[in-house]
Amino acid sequence: MGLRVAVVGAGVVGLSATAVLLERGAEVVCFERSGTPMQERSAGSSRIFRLAHREPDLVRLAADARAGFDRWAERFGRPMIVPSGCVISGADVPAWAAAMDAAGAPFERSVGPDRLRLPARRAPADALLDPSGGVVDVDAVRAHLTKCTRQAVRLEPVEAVDSNASVWTPSGRAGFDAVLLAAGAGTSQLAAQVDMAVPGELEHHVRFTFPADPAVAWRSWIDLPAAGLGTYQHASGPGRWAVGAHLDPAATAWEVGRDAATSSARAAVLKYAREHLAVEPRAVEILYCSPTPGLGDGFHIQRSGRVVAVHGENLFKLAPVLGAVLSAALVAA
Asked: Of these four, 8, 60, 183, 285, which has the most CB atoms within 10 Å of its CB?
């Protein structure tokens, strides 16, 4: 390929793109401002994987991503996804089911509580079962991608970029043929330097993990009721059940502060766990992140000159697809 590329951000998206570019013969430098790759938005040990989405195109992309995770697993010699299945419940189940049907993806409706296999004290009235869903083993993905890209990663912050693919770091200026901005919360500021408008607003989000019965294999669960607390839940290891909640935006707004937002989230999730879940309502792990509010599923790619920027939320499950898509975009730049 002969292309010289700067990738800004060594999260799962940046590392996935770096790995594909290296495979295709590009010369890549992947800059990371923190001390370790995949330690900011890509932190943690687990994520929900699902084919289920509200749009057929996203269902198809998730199916491609699943095939990509399987290829990574074959190369690395370790499974990337624990196949637990994933349950979607709440007011929008018909829309999720219609998207799955349009994409030709397998799913079930109107299944009994024993088939749903949820930690709920009361099973949801309507639910969609995505049998292809499960839990991404983030530790396995991290180990695979860091092994594939270790020669390309440079632990140094990027301070500025321009549309001619120049990059400034504390070490000085370096020129490239193309630049990928995949820096999570840092993407907005860098993109603005090349006249790209990337959402920069942040909010606080906290996920809590509770002790659970290690003998029970529960399914991953996304519950979005018309009223009450919306949650996402999944096993994060033997005898560990992780729960994240969608709180009132006023409680998680950036200006509230991390401590106050964490306190609000803890109170809401602990109350929910006591009333609704068959877990021990005692948080044994807390995972904090700072997402951009209102983006939902999917991703967005922008270009200015020879600079490409990607942003979105919940991108981990699409990482193998994004690596290939972004590599192609950089070649075109």
From this structure: 183
